Prior knowledge:
Blueprint: H1 7-27, H2 34-41, H3 45-51, H4 55-75, H5 82-98, H6 107-116, H7 118-144, H8 154-175, H9 179-194
Amino acid sequence: MRHPKTRRGQQTQAAIVSAAAELMYERGVRATSVGDVLARAGAGKGQLYHYFATKDDLIAAVLEHQLEQVLQQLAAFRLDTWAGIRAWFDALLEGQRTRAYRGCPVGSLSSEMAAASAELASRVAAAFQRWEDALTESLQRMRDSKVLASSARPRALARTTLAAIQGGYLVSAATRDLEPMRSALEMAYDHLRVHRSGAADERVPA
């Protein structure tokens, strides 16, 4: 992906990526054509291929765009506190509801991308790694501040939590029902609480 030097170029590129992200989230990667993206973005084919050499380049940019949205949401919560984790989980549920049960903005792209090419598969793996890293840092702070027990393993807890989130998204999207995701998040929260420090024990809100 080329990085435009002018403000107008940056706006055009951002419009193309945003349009592609919306369409791929709504329809899927394979079902979204370059023509669909251009029509949604109001851009020309020459502009698209000036910034993206191939459709795979555009898909990779969409993944990065969606991941940044996810990480920005995550950063908005104090995930080194129980209340912050609860609030984040509530926001994930609300997002799933308002987006008509389409699933995770990152996860919904991952299976098609991973199957498309080794390069895209590696980008998917890197995206989930960044998400896991961000969550690990928050859980590490919880352990450092003795909210989590010293025996807790932040990396393993982050990986398990992320897997629960993705599983919840998947079943919720397939059934168009929020309850599977709600249950997955409750289980993830309970699993984290098992590793709380005795000195920081607190009652879980009803």
